[in-house]
What we know:
It comes from Mesorhizobium erdmanii. This protein is α/β, with parallel strands linked by helices.
Amino acid sequence: MSYKDILVFLDGSTDNRTRLEFAFSLARAHGARLTGVDVNAAAAFEGEWAERAKSLSDTFHAGAEDSGVPVRFKIADRDAVGWKNFYAHYADLLIATQPNPEASGKVLPGVPEQVLMSAGVPMIVLPQSWKPGPIGRQVVIAWSPSAQATRVVHDAMPILALAQKVTAFAFDPLADQEDADVEMLREHLLAHGIKIAIDKWSNTGDLAPIEALFASRALEEADLIVAGAYSHSRFREALFGGMTKSLMQQFSLPVLVSH
Length: 259
C-alpha cells in the first residue's frame, strides 16, 4: 500500500525549497517516482524570482541525485494552461503550497485549486511559509458520512498505514445508540490494519465544523489533516483563500485533500 507516482509543483517562490524537500522525502518513503512540474508564469522570470525560476531544473535534479529518488521534469505550457499541461492525471498524489498573494501573476493560474478540481488525484497542500517537519506520523481525519470524506480516506490509505496515530474527528456525529457511523469507520480501517482513535464534537451551534476541528484536542499533536475538499465551504476557503484572517492564522498544518 503505497504511492508509486508523486508529482510536485515547482515555482520560483521562497516556499519551493521546503516543498521540494518534503516531496523527495515522501517519494523516498514510498519508493515512488517524483515528477517535478515547473508552473512558473512568464512574470516569474523577471525581478526577485528570476534566479530561482531559471534554476528550477538544476535544483530539482540536484535534489534527486542527493536523495536517490527516480525523477522526471516537466514544464507546464505557459501559453495554453489546462489540466493536460499540469500532468496531474498521471500521478497518485500531488504536492502544492497554499496560494500566496505575493505569487499572483508569477504562478500559472489554476495551481493548486483548479488542478485539484479537475485532476481526480489527492493533493497535499502545505501552509505558506511552512517549516519542514514530519508529516504523517500523527494524522487527523476530518470525518463525516459523506462522499468527500470517504474518498479522501481511501486516497490517504498509504499514509494512514504508516502513521503512528490516526484520529477521526467527528463533528456532530449521528446519535444512534451504537454510534454506528464512526464505529463502522473504525472497523473498516482496522480491516486494512489501521487502528484509529475517535474524537467526537457535539454541535451546540457555537462553532462551524472547521472551527471545531481547529479547537479540538485531536489537533494538539497532529502533523497532517485528511479532509474532503468541499465537505464544508468554509474549509475550502480556509485552504485556498477567501477566509477571514483569524481563521487563516490557525491554518498551520499540511492537509491531504481530495475532490
